[in-house]
Backbone:
């Protein structure tokens, strides 16, 4: 099994930054990619960003491209999502996920999920 723990959520004003971190432990060798997804009330869980453990190749949803940056630290088994220029529509519970299937942009490609962290963008 792989355990994922997210941290860094909270309340932020529109236009502000926030950084989320995901720490992976356990049988992490069973995964080769990490992703961030989010789910707003009444909506389906949607892809935000993903990264390959091996070469750091990244993927982004169009809605966050240019504002969010995903990065990884292989030595620490952590993945970070730096979110800038946040908008009210970014408000959601953000989930970290780990898996080995492709494409990286769909929920079904991930086997392990964190508990989620709330991000609220409001003035």
Residues:
């Amino acid at each position: 099994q792989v355990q994922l723990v997210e941290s860094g959520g909270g309340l932020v004003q529109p236009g502000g930054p926030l950084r989320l971190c995901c720490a992976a432990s356990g049988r992490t060798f069973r995964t080769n990619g990490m992703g961030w997804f989010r789910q707003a009330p009444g909506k389906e869980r949607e892809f935000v960003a993903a990264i390959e453990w091996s070469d750091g190749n990244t993927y982004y949803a169009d809605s966050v491209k240019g504002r969010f940056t995903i990065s990884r630290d292989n030595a620490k088994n952590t993945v970070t999502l730096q979110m800038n220029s946040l908008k009210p529509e970014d408000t959601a519970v953000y989930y970290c996920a780990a898996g080995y299937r492709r494409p990286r942009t769909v929920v079904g490609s991930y086997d392990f999920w964190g508990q989620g962290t709330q991000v609220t963008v409001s003035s």
Remarks:
- The mean pLDDT is 94.
- The first strand starts at residue 2 and ends at 7.
- The radius of gyration is 13 Å.
